[in-house]
Amino acid sequence: MSILSIENVYSGYGDIGVINGISLSLDDGEFLGIFGHNGMGKSTLLKTIAGLIPVKSGKVEFGGNDVTRLPVAKRASAGLGYVPQGRQIYPNLSGRDNLKVAALGARGKAIPVERIVALLPRLEPLLDRLGGVMSGGEQQILALGRCLIGNPKVILLDEPTEGIQPSIREEMIEALKVVRRETAISIVLVEQNIEFIRSLSDRILAIQKGTIIAELLSASASELEALEL
Amino acid sequence: MDYICILIIQVISSIAMLVLLAIGLAIMFGMMKVINFAHGEFIMVGAYTSVMSVNAGLNFWLATFVVAPLAVAFVGFIVERVIIRHLYGRIIETMLATWGLSLFMIGTVTIVFGNTVTGISAPLGSISIGRFSNSTYDLVLIVMAAALLVACALFLRRTNLGLIARAAMQNADITAVLGHEPKKIYCATFVVGAAISGLSGALIAPLTGVSPGMGLAFVAKAFITVICAGPAVIFGTGLVAAVFGTVNTAVTFVATPVFGEVALLLSAIILLRVMPKGLTARIMRKAL
Q1: Which of A9, A121, B37, B220 has the least C-beta neighbours within 10 A?
Q2: Which of B132, B110, B135 is nearest to B121 (CA)?
Q3: Residue B103: band (very low, low, confident or very high) from pLDDT cuts 50, 70, 90
Q4: A93 Cβ contact partners less than 8 Å away, ≥ 6 residues apart
Q5: Which domain, by its residues, includes B53?
């Protein structure tokens, strides 16, 4: 049963087309990886699904409803979570306030902070620090927590390893495995780090110049390197 | 001794005046980066509302604290819906549109009330300090300016709505992704800024005289104060008003009011030359 699907979607910035007719569907509880190099349209794809970039043509369905023209905030309220590239933590708010903004946005269905901290213990020391002074890895954990607190059905995860040291990368993998184990959330991960994407994904799509050029099971992810992307 | 007392009261009144002129704009420009050239006219409408209400027999304090802010909040709501909403992030267009709005508001008020100066007298009489006396109403302005600064800071720091407003100012897209409608937040912020401008207009009406073009005299000072304030909009506005108010009054005392104004503008130029991003970009960066 598919929770999120997009059909022949075109989008981009102004007149410049970046996504050229992508269709994909995400099953309930699935972890879908999307692999591609810089400038291939990975982030644009996620922004389009989140609603930050308008769809030029095609259709986005979430939870069985057509959300193609729905504003960003309404999609979020419906349970579509998004962790942006570069984390985009509020620099002048504390970790706790970063989480609180998300909890207020989720209104009744927000998860208590304690439960998020129990799920991601690394959050604990970050609560009282300003977002702007955290390291990239700390911000990434906080960004994940900030998304989880809204109790999403799907998380769109944009390059969580970007600008993060390898040791924290391992930690991110563990954190995401915990999220998978403890929640029923489906995840779309966009990455250019092969190791990261194959240790988490059930299925991997390769994206090039705004189209999907291959679909692989995680086990055969080594073929990605052979794909001359 | 009494001379010094009066001088100090004059300095603080001058600071309070700058705060009142600038704080509504500080909220609109400082937080939303909306350049509202009609800011002076928002103040003017607040002043007219107060004068009209008092002339119609309403209590001065009720007119100032309730009627004027509500009237200008309503004007702000309409302006946001009709003009500002469609121009977020487009600075030049916003400037042009609000400049046109400013002319429109001046013209409309001139047609309705005529191009004459009206006014109301300041309530509360005066207090005598030694050989001198000072209007008691000056003290009301001082208290109100301080109260507005504190109230704005507390609102932003302590309330959920204030937190969401700060979040939206830092990153509107992410705030939308977290389930908040940026349009609603911006609209509310603009309306609050307008209401405070209306309150300011009503408060200064007894001192300045009320005419359709009165706003033109204020808008430059308001912008200078807010731009020099820098990123910490509320605290910065208070701090910059303190600097400029002191300079203005001090020079006025030793020379003339004209030199006082010149000194104010000169200190603004120097401040922006040394700190192009405003006073609070360098100091007190954690303030609001």
Answers
A1: A121
A2: B135
A3: very high
A4: A101, A130, A131, B163, B166, B167, B170
A5: 10-121+134-274
Among the partner residues A77, A84, A88, nearest to B179 by beta-carbon distance: A77
Structural domains in chain B (count): 1
Rounded-to-integer distance, Cα B100 and Cα B123, Å: 35
Residue B286 within a domain? no
Interface test with B, best of A62, A98, A101 (most B CBs within 10 A): A101
Is position B256 within any domain? yes
Q: Look at chain A and count its residues.
A: 229
Task: Find the CATH number of the domain harbouring B47.
Answer: 1.10.3470
Burial (CB count <10 Å: 0-12, 13-18, 19+), residue A13? exposed
Q: What is the pTM of this model?
A: 0.85
User: How many CB atoms neighbour CB B113 within 10 A?
Assistant: 15
In a domain, B142, yes or no: yes
Amino acid at A166: P
- The answer, yes or no, to whether ipTM is higher than 0.90 is no
Cα three-residue angle B205-B72-B199, rounded to 5 degrees: 40
Beta strand pairing status for A2-13 and A80-83?
A: unpaired
State whether B174 and A90 contact (CB < 8 Å).
yes
- Nearest-neighbour CA in chain B from A51: distance (Å): 9
